[in-house]
Amino acid sequence: MAVNKVYPDAQTALAGLLRDDMTIMSGGFGLCGIPAVLIDALRESGAKGLTIISNNAGIDDVGLGVLLKTRQVRKMISSYVGENATFAQQYLAGELEIEFNPQGTLAERIRAGGAGIPGFYTATGAGTQIAEGKETKQFDGRTYVLERGLRADLAVIHAWKADSEGNLIYRKTARNFNPIMATAADHVVAEVEDLVDYGQIDPDHIITPGIFVNRVVPLETVGKRIEQRTVRKRY
Fold first, then answer.
1. CB atoms inside a 10 Å sphere around CB 173
2. For residue 123, what are the contacts with CB-CB under 8 A and spacing of at least 6?
3. Are the C-beta atoms of residues 172 and 138 closer than 8 Å to each other?
4. What distances in angstroms separate CA 198 from CA 10, 32, 131, 201, 221, one per listed residue?
5. Kind and range of the H or E run holding 161
6. Helix or strand or coil: residue 235?
7. Contact 75/98 with Cβ under 8 angstroms?
8. Second CATH level (architecture) for the domain 19-100+151-218
9. Higher pLDDT residue, 59 or 201?
């Protein structure tokens, strides 16, 4: 029996998957490749006490910043949160917990979780606050820190193209954290810019196989905000 993975909107796609105090991975880097429509649906659901695993926390009114504004986030597991004033205010007031990670370590923790690897050693962070409270070990005269793999109850991701079976292609730098998060959660919901029929994607071009994806939401419109607009004079 065929499984219908295509849902008409983000709210319907998330129905039955959300609850308070769950852990959610959210793809993207800055505002590039973020599942903005799914994040808005998370806000509208009212689910609270969330632990969010994401490279960053968006900005005040875009991306994960909207969940911080409604105080639905209890903890962030992130690498960089410097563009979000709401995050800073809540953290300094003791209202938000943060688990900082070196960026490469965060990516590897997610990849390891998706590969079924419970932990790994890395030299990154050895001898710093990052290593406090963690097991360390010597390899070839160098100190390494034990980091745990990460998994989530749900991953919300953004892809450029998908077919009806959930096979995904990402576009350029919007690929970032999305593919590894798609492997590291119990349920995966992908918002996609272009939905095509099964068989219309060259198998060699597929980045995330549909076996990892539970639900797909085709987007009617795609808004792409620029976090830091940088230009130079043309000569």
1. 10
2. 142, 143, 144, 145
3. no
4. 21, 27, 47, 7, 22
5. strand 152-163
6. coil
7. yes
8. 3-Layer(aba) Sandwich (3.40)
9. 201
**Half-sphere exposure (CA, 13 Å, Cβ side) for 52?**
33
pLDDT for res 33: 94
CA distance 152 to 174: 21
Phi and psi of 217, rounded to 5°?
Answer: -120, 110
Tens-digit pLDDT profile for residues 72-128: 999 999 998 877 888 889 999 999 999 999 999 999 999 999 999 999 999 999 999
End-to-end Cα spacing for the chain: 61
What pairs with residue 145 in β-bridges? 122, 136
Structure tokens at 182: 């798609």
Average pLDDT, the chain: 94
Amino acid at 42: L
Residue corresponding to tokens 């983000």:
10
Using DSSP, state whether 32 is helix, strand or coil.
Answer: strand
- Tokens of residue 135, six digits: 């097991």
Exposure of 131 in the CB half-sphere (CA atoms within 13 A): 15
Q: How many CB atoms lie within 10 A of CB 205?
A: 9
Domain borders along the chain are 19-100+151-218
CB neighbour burial string for 50-61, b if at least 16 within 10 angstroms, e if fewer: bbbbbbbbbbee
| Sequence-ordered list of residues with C-beta below 8 angstroms from that of 201, at least 6 positions apart, any chain | 161, 162, 163, 167, 169
pLDDT class for 59, splitting at 50, 70, 90? confident
- Which amino acid makes up residue 93? A
